[in-house]
Amino acid sequence: MFVTHAPQQRFKAFYDCLSNNDTATSSVVSSYILVKLAARCNLACTYCYWFRDKSVLDAPKRLTLEAEDAFITRLGEHIRQHQLKTFFILFHGGEPLLFGAARFEALCAKLRELEAAHGCQLKLAVTTNGVLVDAHWASLLQRWNVGVTVSLDGPRAVNDSRRIGFRGQGSFDAILAGVRQLRAAGVEPGFLSVCEPSSDPRELVRFFAEDLGACDFDVLVPDATHEDTPASIAAFYIGLFDAWWDTWLDRGVRIRLLDTLVRGLLGEESRIESIGFGPNTTSTLATDGAIEPLDVLRTAGDSFTRTRIDVFHNGLQDIQSDPLWREVLQASLTLPKTCQSCQHRMTCGGGHVGQRWSAARRFDNPTVYCEDIKAILAHMSARLFADMTIVAPAGALEAVREAA
Asked: What are the protein's GO molecular function terms (predicted)?
């Protein structure tokens, strides 16, 4: 078997949409939106990107009813206009469960009615810290078929040093109580962890796989820009990969970031929002009804993601006329010059677009973690190819000899 990196031409449609003709964005039909149900949180996590932008404190604490109803109307229009068969909605915050159970159920009912009316499958999901999940919340999430991801940073000591309450108290026990409620209701959550570079990666994967019995989770790279000085992540992810590759992969455990990187190193198309070459088309609905680009870009500064587009005056597709949204898309499809000769350019794709930001060069930089990512991928490559056996189909070698 011979594998090669697929060329950038596979995203030709997205390049075409970036022509000088602004109307060309119609070729990128939105099928996903991140909906901010709450602009506040019940935790004060030490690394949270959301509150790095102080302007979020000026937004309504919860998605307003007026914005909610306008969004439902715009979503219906969008589905009809583009004849969509599926659309993905991720409920987010702050802490989205601060929205309230009654309002959440009413919103889900509206969305399911819209789904039935238009014949478009709405895939609903929520990312929560799990602290507010009780039996009632768990039953609501199960009843309305809402996928759940719980944010948990690993074993108690790691989690409680970072995912803390406003009085400095840990959240570990409350999160696990919420996980038990979800499982009791028949909802198996996914898990998101943010890398703590000084922690033991082997203990992290053992905790999720063994103590929690989770077979699918992710370990995110901490949000940072070139205006920050983040700690090195190379040793952590190298250790995480070795533990996964040597022990847990054969037991059916999937770590999303590592799985994606392996696919990229083997020449397959591999792209998630956090890494890999490909278009970033994310849009965000804020609690006041504004439609904005990728929300994590708030790390670039206060009000950085603010636009003049909202669900009261615009369709969901109109965000694609916003200069920042277009700049982010362009950046996600344009490798920085320093990346273009890198052997890992397609697997890494320059890194997360938010982590490419600098005040001097905006997104025209490799990720702030560039040297770390190179070290991680070099280690993974060495391990992968040392363990790889290439089996040629019967007669293939003879055909090669004859051709020579």
From this structure: iron-sulfur cluster binding; metal ion binding; oxidoreductase activity
